[in-house]
Design goal:
3 copies of one chain form a homotrimer.
Chain A: H1 2-24, H2 29-51, H3 63-78, H4 85-110, H5 115-136, H6 151-166, H7 170-192, H8 205-217
Helix pairs in contact in A: 1-2, 1-3, 1-4, 2-3, 2-5, 4-5, 4-6, 4-7, 5-6, 6-7
C-alpha cells in the first residue's frame, strides 16, 4: 500500500537527516541513533496526537523504529565523505517534509477530519520531526531560516493532496502529486537560491545595526 | 462573544511578538510568518491537546491562521522604528500570556475539568506559545529569565478566572478580571524592575565564579 | 502504593535536576521554580498525552506540583557547595529517567496498551522531562551527548518492567527491577567512562576539520 510505503520512506529520510547532523556534530553512535529516531518518528507522533490516535501508531510496533535505525546505521557507516553535508541534510529534509506533508494530510482525511484540518495536520506532520531535530542540536530550525521557505511548499503539497483526493483522483495520485509538488517546489527554491524579502528597514542601516547590538546586549 | 474575541486578541499579540523577534533576527518574510503563526497558535494547540480536543480547534478553520497572518503582516510593514524592540516584545508577551491564561482556564472549565485542572491548563495555554517562540529562535525563554517572573502572574490570572466563574461572577467578568490581573501584575513587575533572589551563595564569590567556569568548560 | 511513591520520587529527582541547573545558570527563584516544575512534570504529561489521558493526571491535583516545588526549594537552600554540580545533575537525571521509564511502562500496561507500546511509552516518559529542561536552558540535551548513552538504559529498564509484569512477577517487582537496571546500567556507563564510537572518519582529519568549519560557517 502506497501510504505505508511512503510513510516508511519519510521516516528513513528524516532519520538520515538526523543521523547526518549527529555525525557532523561529532555525537557518539548512541547520540546519533537517538537523534535519528526522534527526527524520523517525531512528525508521525505529532500527527497522531493531533488526531487523537493514542497511543500513536509508532508506539504499537517495532517497524517504524527499525526503519529509522537502519537508516541511521547506513548514514553512520557510509555518510558522505565530501563537504556536501549541509546540502545533503537540506535535500533529505525537503524529501521528508514532502512525504510527511502528503501522507499526514491523507491520514487525517481517512480519520475523518475536514479538508482544512487535513491540510494543516499534513503541514504539522511534515514540520514536526525537523523542528525537534534542530532544537535538540541547539540550532535555529531550518524552518525559519532565511532562503529556505520550508512551510510554504509543505502547505502547497498538503493542500494539493487533500484537493486531489477530494476531487476523486484517488489516494495514490493524491500522495504522488502532493509529494512531488512539495518536494519540487522546495528544491526549486534551494536550487535557484530565491531570497525572500526581509522587513523594510525604515531607517538608516547604521541605526539598525546599532539597534541590533543593543538588543543583543539587552 | 467575549471568549472568542479575547482569544483572537491573544493570538494577535503572540503572533506580533513572534514576528517582531523574527524581524530582529533578520529572518526573511517566510521565516517571520512561520514564527508568528507557531507563536500565535501554539498555546491554543497545547490547551486542546491537554483537554483531548482533537483535532485542535485551530486546525478546523482558517480564522486563527488568518488572525496570526494579519498580525505578522502589520508588524512586518510597521515594526517599531526605535530601539524599543525588546520591551515591545515583553509587553506583547505579557498581554498574550494574560489573555491565554484567562481564556484557556475558562475553556477548560467549559470542557468540564476540575477548577484546579482549569487553572493549570490556563497557565499552560498562556506559556505554550512563548516557549515555542523562544526555543525556535534559540534563546533562553523569557519564562525562566531573571526579573521576568512570567509564571506567577499567569497562575494568579488563571486562578482568578476560575474563582470568579465558580463563585457566580459569570464568564465575562471572569475573563476580564483574570486578564487584567495577570497583565497588570506582570507589567508591574517589569515596570518596578523587581528582582527576585537568586540561590544563596554559601561560599565566597571567587569560588563560585571559578565553579561557573568549570561548569561551562565541563 | 509503590507506583505512586516511585512516581513522586521521579518527580522530585527531575525537579531537583532542573532546579540545580537553574542555580548554576544564575536564574532567580521564580525561574528556578518554573524550570524545576516543568522538568519534574514534563515526562508524566508526555506519558498521559500518549495514552490519551486528558487532562493529564498532573493537572488534576496539587500533589505533583507540590512535590516538585518542595524539591526545588530544598535545592534552592541547600544546593551542593562544592564543584560537583554537573555530576549531581547527571545522577539525579539518571535516577529520574530510571524511575519514570519503569513507572511510565507500568502505567501504560495498566492502561491496556501492548507490551511494545508500554516499553516505548516508558522510555518517552523517562526522557521527556530532561529534554524539556535542557532545551529550555538552551543546551544540547544530555540525551544525545557523547558518553551519556541515556536512551539505552531507559529502554532496558522499561522493557524489563514490561517483561517482569507480563511473566507474572507482579507490578512491584517489575517496578523495582526495572528501575534498578535502568539506574545501575546508566551509572555504570558514567562511572566507567565508557565511550561509544563516533562515525568512521573516512578521510584525513585535516579535511574533516576543514569541513567542520565550512559547515559552521555555512
Amino acid at each position: 500500500m502506497l501510504l505505508t510505503a511512503l510513510n516508511y520512506l519519510g521516516i528513513a529520510a528524516f532519520a538520515a537527516s538526523g543521523a547526518l547532523i549527529g555525525v557532523r556534530k561529532r555525537l557518539d553512535v548512541f547520540g546519533i541513533w537517538t537523534l535519528a529516531v526522534l527526527t524520523g518518528l517525531g512528525g508521525g507522533v505529532a500527527r497522531d496526537i493531533l488526531l487523537g490516535v493514542t497511543p500513536p501508531v509508532t508506539f504499537k510496533g517495532w517497524e517504524n523504529l527499525t526503519v529509522a535505525t537502519v537508516s541511521a546505521a547506513i548514514v553512520f557507516f557510509f555518510h558522505p565523505q565530501v563537504g556536501a553535508v549541509r546540502r545533503t541534510v537540506d535535500v533529505l529534509d525537503a524529501f521528508g517534509v514532502a512525504l510527511f506533508a502528503a501522507t499526514g494530510a491523507l491520514t487525517a482525511i481517512h480519520a475523518g477530519t475536514s479538508p482544512i484540518a487535513a491540510a494543516l495536520i499534513g503541514v504539522t506532520t511534515g514540520l514536526g520531526g525537523g523542528i525537534l531535530r534542530d532544537v535538540l542540536v541547539n540550532e535555529v530550525p531550518l524552518l525559519i531560516q532565511s532562503g529556505e521557505m520550508v512551510a510554504i511548499p509543505a502547505l502547497a503539497g498538503a493542500a494539493l493532496t487533500v484537493a486531489v483526493d477530494g476531487l476523486g483522483g484517488g489516494p495514490d495520485w493524491a500522495l504522488i502529486l502532493g509529494t512531488a509538488v512539495a518536494f519540487g517546489f522546495r528544491i526549486l527554491v534551494m536550487w535557484r537560491g530565491w531570497t525572500a524579502p526581509r522587513a523594510p528597514d525604515g531607517g538608516c542601516s547604521a541605526h539598525r545595526r546599532r539597534r541590533g547590538r543593543d538588543d543583543a546586549a539587552g
